[in-house]
Design goal:
Distance between the termini: 61 Å
Structural class: alpha+beta
Order of helices and strands: HHHEEEEEEEEEEEEEEE
Strand content: 35-45%
Helix content: 25-40%
Length: 281
Amino acid sequence: MERPLFGPESELALAMAKAASVSAVEATRAAEQAVTSYGELLQLHPYSPRPSDDRDDLADYQTALEAYEEAKQSPAAKVPEILERGREALERLDVAARAAGSDTQWIHGSGRTRARVPNPVTDGPALLIFETDQGDGDYVVSGKRRGRSREFLRGTCGGWGTRAQVLVPPQRDAMMPLEVSAPGPWRIELRPADEARQLCWNAPLKGRGPESVAKVDGSGVVEFEHHGEGAFKVYEVTQLFHKGPLLAEGQGEARLTIAVPHNCLLRIDADGRWTLRDPQA
């Protein structure tokens, strides 16, 4: 007996059902592998919580643990987003670990505040790290030198807050005066410039929010991918560590190939997530 062309028993319907079943099995398998890999990453991470630790570090560690447990119980489609949240928390712990044992420390504040931030280097640029996880609204970080105000950071906090790490020009004082305006609590510190992340040709660099990135050797182009609905800009950083030529800009989801020098510093201004790659050795 021939099957009808349409309806639940048609050849087309059976083929579509089989394809959907195979796709669901593959998605489940991929999600399980992702959870397993994340669990191994979590197990090998060097951070060990202590009651005396910074409350933000303890919160990040708890977020990383909860992401693992939540991902194990969630549908496959939700697993990537959950694990991304956990990886971001682990990345913040990595930054905190690099700062452990140094003379620098987080300066905490809320709303609009003037702060004097310890400067680890007085003969070169510094890496300014700014974090806030409170509410929606605009944030601005600016400083003064020789009586002139210079804006280092400006952006918009999403529901997840923001994290920025950008190079700032040399300041010849042991304490750098900064003015911060944000919708809620925040923390800020200065780190040595060589702690800025480097783009390696064989691995993508994933980030969220504004960041200065060092590109060493590799090809004369980078691939930039922007995720989300917000605006983005990519600049080359000048020898004086200011924003230089604007290399790319846009709005929303985008995937671009950008011509850049083989050795350079790049500044990415984006409120949301992005990915940067060097496609060649």
